[in-house]
Amino acid sequence: AVAAAVVEVEAGGLARVLATEPVDALHVMDDMLKVMFAQVTLRPSGHQFSVEGRDSLLQAGLRAGLNLNYGCGNGSCGMCKVRVTDGQVARCAPSDYPLSEAEKSQGYVLACAHTAASSELTLETLEAAGPADIPEQQIAVTVRALRPLAPDTLLLHVQTPRTHRLRFLAGQSVTLAAAAEGAQARHPVASCPCDDRNLHFFIPRDPADALAVRLFAGDVRPGDALTLWGPYGDFTLAQATQPLVFVACDIGFAPVKSLVEHALSLDAAPSLTLFWLATRGDGHFLANQCRAWSEALDPFEYSLFTDTDPAAGALQLARAMRADLFEVDCAFYLAGPAAFVATVTAQLAQAGVPAAQIHQEVLP
To answer: Does residue 287 register a pLDDT over 90?
Structure first.
């Protein structure tokens, strides 16, 4: 009601000032939403995020790194229902899901179809606490781009349908399959959950990976369909308020990149440090991304290492970590081949880091 009244006043006032035809209320609301900034508080978690312009509550919450409950993202399934307990909202997108009269009277709206219409807003909703709260999904995705990052590493960009986005946590993996029988493999998502339609993967050249063989051979092209299952794994951000240390070897940078982007969106960690070991010539295939983060973001630092042996490189990296940081009260995220992860884990344990602060993802 408040939002509608504001639109009516603004529309009438603008028409009088310009001495023109009456202004369409929807156009006025559109202009208001472009400049509106709102602070949203979630209950019972107490998490907060801001909404700017015409973003929906769901879009803004995901961009802030929150694990909101949702399904389709376009107003069809009703899984993103939230209860408005204080403040005003306005519809910003159409929806097909029918809320009951009882739900409407209690203040429920769809987060994907509404935005903030007051400077402060309080919502009641549940959030995913961890991987167990994320359901397994099967989605037909479309290849949007496939390009080399280095001689033996491809960037695979796939896109989900608007009506079926992938809900996942940063650091998790999915299984991708091409039409050919047996051409499937599990790969970590290298992009942030804040964009749940556009998913990036770093695919290494591997003769044992039937999907990678097809991708490097050019048998899969933009516009082709793949099938995706997932997400899987518990290599996820457990605590974002400690200093975060990310330790990757070669393609282990894929889940680490997703975690770094998620941590940056949360903006809660006092510092983020990356140690990246390359055991092959093109192992630092996105060193320019690390450089860009370091130049643009004060809390981010990184160090690059090379060694053809993962275990020996892990020892070199561990020595540098002790000399560079090193506080026991950090959360450590390790991703790479088994020998690398085991060596770094042993070094951290020897230095007194509790096992609960060491998170591991072993990749082929």
So the answer is: yes
pLDDT in tens, 51-77: 988 889 998 998 888 888 888 888 888
Segment 120-141, tens digit of pLDDT: 999 999 888 889 989 999 999 9
Q: Where in the chain is the domain with CATH 2.40.30.10?
A: 132-232
* Model pTM score: 0.80
CA 352 from chain center: how many Å? 31
347's CB contacts (< 8 A; 6+ apart) are 314, 315, 318, 321
Cβ(314)–Cβ(340) below 8 Å: yes
**Residue 188 and residue 200: Cα distance in Å, rounded?**
9
According to CATH, the topology of domain 132-232 is Elongation Factor Tu (Ef-tu); domain 3 (2.40.30)
* β-strand partners of 148: 154
Cβ contact 155:200 at 8 Å? yes
Q: What is the Cα–Cα distance from 318 to 331, expressed in whole angstroms?
A: 15
Task: Report the CATH fold assignment for 36-127.
Answer: Ubiquitin-like (UB roll) (3.10.20)
Helices H, strands E: what count in the chain? 9, 18
- Cα–Cα–Cα angle for 247, 251, 252, rounded to 5 degrees: 30
Q: Name the segment(s) of the chain with CATH classification 3.10.20.30.
A: 36-127
DSSP codes joined into one string, 158-195: EE--TTSPPP--TT-EEEEE-SSTT-EEEEE--S-TTS
Fold of 244-362: Rossmann fold (3.40.50)
